UniProtKB/TrEMBL annotation:
InterPro entries from the UniProt entry: Ankyrin-MYND_dom_contain_2, Ankyrin_rpt, Ankyrin_rpt-contain_sf, Znf_MYND
Cell compartment(s), UniProt: Cell projection, Cilium
Gene3D superfamilies for this protein: 6.10.140.2220, Ankyrin repeat-containing domain
Name of the featured protein: MYND-type domain-containing protein
Keyword Transferase belongs to the record: no
Domain MYND-type: 365-402
Stretch forming the signal peptide: none
Keyword Aminoacyl-tRNA synthetase: no
Membrane-spanning intervals of the chain: none
Domain of life where this protein originates: Eukaryota
Length: 434
């Protein structure tokens, strides 16, 4: 079973259904498939056995078998099945990252395909909901603007089936070359804007879909080179912002704002780092920067819930966006100044990722907003975190609520606001898989 015939919906039907979580897609797939299979079955007999077994291994998700067949297969991998689909398209539709990587390593053409409805590998990856697969395809040069026979791009199809993370991955993508450009000498320069060793970490940093300030701070902490050269990173992000706004018809205001936003966060964290420098012993104070930053942002306001400091911090970021004539800026300001406005973080997240903010039914990390975090507080089970680091950073807020909701005595009964790692360790031991 490897013939996949994607949904063919009328233009209006897609508009009506776009954004709705749709199980019906699978139905459309299989119904069309069955009808098609009978019609096309005789053509299938022409497929050489090796090629057919590759399709079969992908359909069964059998990676070992797939590797074996691929190793024996001497020719190219851009052959088609009876529906005009390549092996890469099948692997992408299955959301199988390893198989996609192996096929790309074997030189699979990421934009190849003769599918009747013009679906590309990226369309299939988008439908699979695997952001990793989409990232691999984009790295290999997949055209995100390619549309299928009903005029829909891969990101639009991902939205149609409710794969919001995949939508954001595709929309936030930029090729590595866009950043590598700044590591080459421009004009009269004697030194490039960006040292070559920062291209990779900065690319990764920019591609991140989770734009929660604490997540960005953690990402920076894991890429110390970026923070060490914060001035260069900020400069390049500002240049990228400006470049994005001066592309004429290709202008991408949203990406321009994202670069501005990232530069703003890097600057803030770099300022905290500079203030810490004189007194701090490097090894001892490993977590201080992120801790100070998240204490500032996650501290609840007077009502005990809303994050007033975070809101002020992020509103200032929007206010400092240098391109005030653009639509994106106006939309954000309109939302921020509306009666009973949503949190600034939600507005910024909607702007950049084209989706609801951190206010959905999907569980998210209380510290950094990461979706579907793996752990939850073992005592109250009412909050979730990515890992111990995220729990540790949030404990100064959560400890009161946790103690209230739990009958188990608190591990620490003092009222100190600053809690160090040792004090927390017993509590952290209790962090369980959610
Ligand atoms: Zn987290
Ligand atoms: Zn708790």
């Amino acid at each position: 079973m490897h013939g996949i015939v994607p949904l063919k919906l009328e233009e209006n039907a897609i508009d009506v259904q776009l954004g709705r979580l749709s199980n019906s897609v699978q139905v459309v797939f299989s119904n069309n498939y069955n009808a098609k299979k009978t019609k096309m079955s005789d053509k299938n007999e022409g497929n050489p056995p090796a090629e057919k077994t590759i399709f079969d291994a992908i359909a069964q998700g059998d990676l070992t078998e797939f590797k074996n067949i691929l190793a024996k297969h001497k020719g190219g991998v851009d052959f088609f099945d009876e529906n005009g689909m390549t092996a890469l398209q099948h692997a992408a539709y299955k959301g199988n990252k390893d198989m996609v990587q192996l096929l790309l390593d074997r030189g699979a053409d990421v934009n190849s395909g003769k599918h009747e409805y013009n679906y590309t590998s990226l369309h299939f990856g988008a439908l699979s909901g695997s952001s990793d697969v989409c990232k691999l395809l984009l790295d290999a040069g997949a055209k995100s603007t390619a549309t299928n026979s009903v005029g829909r791009s891969a990101a639009q199809m991902a939205a149609f089936v409710g794969n919001h993370h995949t939508v954001a991955t595709i929309n936030n993508y930029l090729p590595r070359s866009e950043i590598a450009y700044y590591s080459t000498l421009q004009g009269q320069q004697t030194e490039p804007y960006l040292p070559a060793f920062l291209v990779e970490p900065l690319h990764k940093f920019v591609l991140g879909v989770n734009i929660h300030p604490v997540r960005l701070a953690l990402n920076l902490q894991h890429s110390p080179a970026l923070l060490e050269h914060a001035d260069k990173v900020i400069k390049v992000l500002e240049l990228m912002c400006k470049k994005e706004m001066t592309r004429g018809s290709e202008t991408n205001e949203v990406m321009a704002f994202k670069y501005h936003y990232l530069a703003y966060i890097v600057r803030e964290i770099s300022n905290i780092r500079d203030k810490q420098k004189p007194a701090a012993d490097k090894d001892e104070k490993k977590h201080d920067i992120v801790e100070i930053f998240s204490k500032k942002l996650l501290k609840p306001g007077k009502d005990g819930v809303s994050l007033d400091l975070m809101d002020t911090f992020l509103k200032d970021c929007v206010r400092e966006f240098p391109f005030r004539e653009c639509t994106t800026f106006h939309q954000m300001v309109t939302s921020l100044t509306s009666k009973d406005p949503p949190p600034a973080l939600s507005i910024i997240n909607c702007t950049i990722n084209g989706q609801r903010g951190f206010v959905d039914v999907i569980p998210y990390c209380s510290t950094c907003g990461e979706e579907k975090p793996a752990k939850k507080c073992s005592k109250c089970k009412s909050v979730q975190y990515c890992d111990r680091e995220c729990q540790r950073l949030h404990w100064f807020v959560h400890k009161k609520a946790c103690n209230r909701e739990s009958s188990v005595p608190a591990p620490t009964s003092n009222t100190k606001v600053n809690i160090d790692a040792n004090e927390l360790s017993s509590e952290l031991q209790n962090l369980i898989a959610g």
